[in-house]
Amino acid sequence: MIIDPPSGRALDYHLVLPAPDGHDGECVLVEEFTRQDDLCATGLHSASWTPSDGWWSSASLSRGLRADPAVLARVVPVGRAEAADAYQRLGGGELPSEVVLRTYFRDHQPIAAATPLRLGPTQPPPEGFHERRVYRVLFAKDLRVEQVTALRSLWRTTGGGTAGSVADGRHDSGGARFTWDLRRVGNTLAWGLDVTVLMREGGAPAVRETLMNLTNLLRQQGLIAVTTERFA
Hints:
By secondary structure, the chain is an alpha+beta fold. It has helices at about 60-65, 70, 80-90, 100, 145-155, 205-220, and strands spanning about 10-15, 25-35, 40-50, 55, 75-80, 110, 130-140, 165-175, 175-185, 190-200, 225-230.
């Protein structure tokens, strides 16, 4: 089962809270991944706004929040409405439209996109499907026990996932069948959402919709998306 995110939100919004030493104030961060046709991430656009500097290129901030625990601890993923409220509260007025926000993206950060990894022998899709794909969406930050419990309830986790999975789910939509597992990866430094897709003809739009919905749902739980890879 999937709970859809608020409709119409294409960009990712974050609030970056003030630094404990008072050196850096609160800011609004806007990001958007660039992707290949198969949805693997190829790069990241970003821009930030502060009351003192207005809109500025924030490639270094985007890199830092995914690598520096001190920066990561200050970042809160939010929806557009919350970002708009913060923008107004900090003196920016009305948050620009997403068309305008994209004009502030000036420093694209490439993400290496490799040929899909083959983890063991190729597994043909079952009868009735023409393609099998396996994705991993990587996330930074952490989940509290109650958040994992909420995901298990939302996804109707039965405990039948693969080893190491803390929550799993399944979903049929638009000519495709999806199963997924959420697990710790990288020596518990990150979270990985592994999504297996069995596709029928015409199932590609459902793959995009489901991957984005799952990613957005985990953002709503406080995780920061790092990249989307394809294993098969």
